[in-house]
Amino acid sequence: MAGGTRTAKLSLCLIVLVTGFDRALSSSAAQRCFCQVTGSLEDCACDVETIDSFNNKQLFPKLQKLIATDYFRFYKVNLNKPCPFWTDNSHCGLRDCAVKPCTPNEVPDGIRASSNKPVHDPLEASEDSEECEKAEQLGAVNSSLSEDRQKALQDWNRYDDEEDRFCMVDDEESPDIEYVDLLLNPERFTGYKGPEAWQIWNSIYEENCFKPYTVSRPLNPLVTYSGENEGRGFYNWLEGLCVEKRAFYRLVSGLHSSINIHLSARYLLEDSWSGPKWGHNISEFQQRFDEKLTKGEGPKRLRNLYFLYLIELRALAKVLPFFQLPSVQLYTGQPEQDQQNKELLLELLQVAKSFPLHFDETSLFAGNKKEAAKLKEDFKLTFKNISRIMDCVGCFKCRLWGKLQTQGLGTALKILFSERQIASLPRPQGELLPFQLSRQEIVALFNAFGRISTSVRELENFRSLLSKLHDEM
Fold this sequence. Notes:
- The protein has 19 helices and 4 strands.
- It has 473 residues and is mostly helical.
- The strands form 2 sheets. Strands 1-2 form a two-stranded antiparallel sheet. A two-stranded antiparallel ribbon has the order 3-4.
- Helix 16 runs antiparallel to helix 17.
- The longest helix is centred in the last third of the chain and has 34 residues, at 439-472.
- It is globular.
- It starts with a helix and ends with a helix.
């Protein structure tokens, strides 16, 4: 960034001090939310401005088109699993917390072929349900590629990636598992908040981010603080962590920030006889990210969002060789559409690969081999625990998107730490593929990154809205 531009941005942070809550929501509001969300990111070789331009202009439109297709819009999930950590019968009773599952005829035949039901695709009629189930797990394989398909099914049958997973997955044999249309159940503010919602995040931050109880997390609503420097000890502790544990916290914080941006951008503004009106709630956004209203915490949360973006973007770039395999198809039973979707996906991954300042994952777990292996295992087990906490979310729509986004991030981590296996693709005919992704992982990976990409795009909208609010005052 040019020195003059940087100086101009910094000078915005010194605009006249204001008093009163109403003024706090208007004058220099955009500067207080975003003046620190600029320049280079910690532990990275990238800057915020490069990410904004790349995401908003190149990647976001293609990604939105991809995840709107049939293959990516249907997600299989069990929303009735009991909370494994505490007894909680306080399921959200709000109307907007409900999730509408798909009826069988709403899901394309090729996707439903994984279940033990009759296959409706005539090209697949001769195959038994066991092969169809394997095809679903693969992601699946186009029936027109019979030889490749047979090899892929054999590979998946011999492949067990449980040790590679960074999150818990739903049992697809459970009678409670259902398909959900993500486009008809969008992530937005449902009214689910208060102690029940904060119990989820408190459990994640306090018990699953390598943080000792003696270190107080800033702005924890479940803890009473005294004094003005309540966050200083926390950040001194955080900066003293190894890069891997610091990265873990920043990933969790970035995910939390992204979810809060979605809730602020799709907020119920009006509910009248003509129907609900959803839109941007500026004050809600400021309460979560304004530097003054959050005692300096908000901009740190937004910077962590960009860190999360880099991690998931790097995973998309690294997984390209897997999707380039002819046997890997986005199978729905509509051959022409499936081929178009495969081409769109490869085009998107090529764009992701072209990003000039990727995160360097080799900086993680790079020390003593024995210590690095132990740290990586701790990292994996802790993230799996977070994925289990999602079954404690009382709001079913929040639970749906929480499960999907943690599985998506877990899949991204699996990809990042499977470098050798992916680098060895493709394998000679007859050899076991060393790396696989299930359809669930694929759907979660791209939809989760779709949420992160949308959050980065929404920040531009909030910058504009906050500046406009200031101009009107």
